[in-house]
Design brief:
The complex is a heterodimer of chains A (143) and B (619). Chain A is built from 4 helices and 6 strands; from the N terminus they run E-H-H-E-E-H-E-E-H-E. Chain A is an alpha+beta fold. The chains are: A alpha+beta (143), B alpha+beta (619). At the A-B interface, helix 1 and helix 4 of A face helix 7, strand 13 and strand 15 of B.
Chain lengths: 143, 619
């Protein structure tokens, strides 16, 4: 099964959170790290690389959602979430081993990385100042 | 958002939208608010002293680098205007709450902490927090914030905390931000402690206001690509501020043994870029920054010494708690840094007062128990003990907690000659006798001796301008002050500007992308003039004038013994000449009071100051 989640080079990551800013602009047109689908963990010493959906081969979120809103796309192999139908129950948040599903504070729905499908490729990877992120196709505006 | 700790009330105050063009934000906005709210009858530790936490128009965007907030208040150390800066999530989160700033007035009846969120503020009892060190307090507050946020949770909560030093009103107590950073200078931590405010937590979920976020992303990307190719930028990214020590030591500018020399050979390979890199395990960034100048260092001690990790040490700490104390051990500086972080003490002022105490001890100026408590230069254990005594006001520490100016007044015997401060704020780690422009920069700095308003060594040491003359220095210092005033009113970190490098034209572009309105270099230039003169008015009203724009006798009269500046003397006359020229360039009279035509030109004459009248406005 072909899945191609983002990949991060932890050695390059400096914890700057530009990825969060870029993601929220890509998705919601605003600077709002709380609406980002890639999130850097809080640290006070060495930074830790961000969390994002890995599109796991055996994704626990698919089982966890009581409404069955997660499914694996037969075309892309990515785990997709029907965000519109989400009621914000939060069951999936706990199920994710990468802590990569978040509640959008503006909509109260679950949200996760979809590799910027339909938006030209991962915004986070394009804007990361250190080139620590890779994945998906070309950046926004390039394809 | 305003909060009155005495009454528990909070309310929102809208700011005139026209203000941004005149003051931008940050330092500029701080000068405007100070003119209205810092009054001569408001004691720094009194309940009416306001504590402003301000942001700027680029804060929370990814313009390089909108990671900072500024604390504006009346300083317990100088009794004058204080602007104290730090990076922290608080800056971003305040804007996400929809606020440009937070104003705290009054005094809580009992130890409290403040929680700020989208809907407003909540005041909590801090009985279990009071007495904790600043790092523990931060960690505990994150647990208490709705939802509980510890390490590993996504970043997104800004926490400020004071340690025992702030609780005990030490005049150089700082405010910690997200544990590892500090709004260190001038005693803002004591103001917070006097209000019985232990901590502030801010968490917002709204958007950071910006007209063209994608435009800002694209421009910042362009600048980050430029950074990756820039030799200056790469050096700053690799070494951080410790690289500065290599420069100052070679220039005879590194404070050594209480500024009695500017050269410390033992620092080489230990406290400099080489020494720090040896112990560096990671780099980390402030919000939105590609430079990652901050270094995390680790030291695995042997025997009784535990594993030690610290964000830092930065150049100032290496200088003031290392060479200034005659100590060449990086593990010691790391330990002292960590101790100051826990206690909530400004590392710069702490190094200056401990260095002063060491010199007093060497000269036999201390009597009784103080003579026994005071370490000599090089005494690591003694220094650590004294730092802790300062935070808890024990013994000699109790005297030093009042700052080096007050300490010298008590010790007497001519010790004021080497009490290294201006206006009551202790010297940072640049020896002004090694670059005379730096002497002017320290003397005219509104918050006291400060290296952040202008850094003349960039031209006098690194740029070919003769360091040991006074000619042209006033013009140089004014240009640097004005440039930094714009950057600090935008409230951006000046490292990207200096090391990519960028231009003010670049920042005009960012402002346009953020606010949707054009701003010109002329606007910036007028803003700097306006803000610096506005702050001057504030200080004059608070009792600080030309007499306070001065430096200790050691700086003015004693030649350095070694290094490039050896034998050079600035002299009172040298400083006076630079002051005269600087005041003239600012449109102030010979006493440093803004002339009426200057106030008119800058639009400052009719704004409601606390104290109008002839004593402030020049002739």
């Amino acid at each position: 099964m072909a899945t191609r989640s983002l990949a991060v080079d932890g050695g390059r990551c400096i914890g700057c959170r530009v990825c969060e800013a870029a993601c929220s602009v890509g998705w919601a047109g605003e600077f709002n790290p709380k609406r980002a689908r890639i999130r850097v963990p809080q640290t006070f010493l060495e930074p830790r690389p961000p969390a994002f959906c890995r599109h796991c081969p055996e994704a626990p979120c698919i089982e966890a959602c009581p409404q069955g809103l997660y499914r694996r796309s037969p075309d892309s192999g990515l785990v997709e979430l029907d965000e519109e139908a989400c009621t914000g129950c939060g069951e999936c948040l706990e199920s994710c081993p990468f802590h990569a599903i978040f509640l959008d504070p503006a909509t109260n729905r679950a949200m996760k990385c979809d590799l910027c499908s339909g938006r030209g490729g991962p915004w986070c990877a394009r804007y990361c100042p250190r080139g620590a992120l890779e994945g998906g196709g070309a950046g926004p505006g390039e394809g | 958002m305003w909060v009155n700790l005495s009454t528990g009330r909070s309310w929102e105050e809208g700011l005139d939208p026209a203000l941004w063009r005149l003051y931008l934000g940050g330092r500029g906005l701080g000068s405007y608010l100070a003119r209205r709210h810092l009054r001569p009858d408001v004691a720094p530790l009194g309940e009416r002293n306001p504590l402003f936490f301000l942001t700027g128009p680029l804060t929370g965007t990814v313009a390089p680098v909108g990671s900072k907030f500024v604390v504006v208040t009346r300083s317990p150390a100088t009794e004058g205007f204080l602007d104290s800066y730090a990076s922290g999530a608080l800056a971003v989160e305040l804007r996400q709450c929809g606020y440009d700033g937070l104003a705290v007035v009054g005094r809580a009846a009992a130890p409290s902490w403040l929680e700020v969120a989208d809907g407003g503020v909540k005041l909590h009892a801090a009985s279990e927090l009071w007495g904790l060190d600043a790092l523990e307090a931060d960690a505990r507050v994150r647990e208490l914030v709705a939802g509980g946020l510890g390490p590993g949770e996504p970043a997104g909560c800004g926490v400020l905390a004071i340690g025992p030093a702030g609780e005990n009103l030490v005049s150089f107590a700082g405010i910690n931000s997200d544990q590892g950073r500090q709004a260190g200078r001038g005693g803002a931590g004591a103001v917070m402690g006097a209000k019985r405010l232990k901590a502030i937590a801010v968490r917002g979920t709204g958007p950071v206001p910006a007209e063209d976020p994608r435009g800002i992303l694209e421009l910042a990307r362009e600048h980050n690509l430029k950074l990756a190719e820039s030799p200056l930028g790469k050096a700053r990214s690799r070494f951080g501020t410790p690289l500065t020590l290599d420069i100052t030591n070679r220039a005879g500018m590194l404070p050594t043994r209480n500024f009695s020399s500017g050269v410390f050979p033992e620092a080489q390979g230990e406290l400099d870029s080489v020494g720090v890199e040896r112990r560096t395990v990671a780099s980390r960034s402030c919000f939105g920054c590609g430079v990652a100048c901050s270094k995390v260092t680790r030291f695995a001690g042997s025997g009784m010494e535990p594993l030690l990790a610290v964000e830092g040490p930065e150049y100032e700490t290496l200088g003031m708690l290392g060479s200034n104390l005659g100590i060449a051990s990086l593990p010691f500086v790391m330990r002292a840094n960590h101790l100051c972080d826990r206690l909530g003490l400004d590392t710069i002022s702490t190094g200056a007062v401990v260095g002063f105490a060491m010199e007093c001890a060497e000269r036999g100026l201390l009597g009784g128990e103080w003579a026994q408590e005071a370490p000599r230069f090089g005494d690591e254990a003694g220094a650590l003990r004294l730092i802790e005594d300062i935070a808890f006001r024990r013994g000699l520490g109790g005297l030093l907690a009042r700052g080096v100016r007050a300490a010298a007044q008590v010790v007497g015997q001519g010790s004021d000659r080497f009490a290294m401060h201006s206006k009551g704020l202790e010297f940072p780690a640049y020896e002004p006798r090694a670059a005379f422009g730096a002497a002017l920069a320290y003397a005219v700095s509104p918050r006291g001796a400060c290296h952040r308003r202008a850094w003349p060594p960039a031209r006098e040491v690194l740029g070919g301008v003769p360091p040991f003359t006074v000619e042209g220095k006033a013009q140089l210092v004014k240009e640097m002050y004005d440039e930094n005033c714009v950057l600090h009113s935008l409230l951006v970190c000046d490292f990207p500007f200096k090391f990519i490098p960028l231009t003010l034209q670049d920042y005009a572009r960012y402002v346009e992308l953020a606010l949707g309105q054009a701003v010109t270099l002329e606007d910036f230039s007028r803003l700097a003039d306006r803000v610096e003169t506005c702050i001057r008015l504030v200080n004059l009203a608070l009792g600080l004038g030309r007499e306070q724009d001065t430096l200790p006798a050691r700086t003015l009269e004693e030649p350095l013994p070694e290094g490039p500046p050896a034998g050079k003397i600035l002299g009172r006359e040298g400083l006076d000449r630079m002051l005269d020229e600087y005041y003239a360039l600012r449109g102030w009279d010979r006493e440093g009071r803004p002339r009426p035509e200057t106030l008119q030109r800058l639009g400052l004459e009719d704004e409601g100051g606390p104290d109008g009248g002839d004593q402030i406005v020049g002739r």
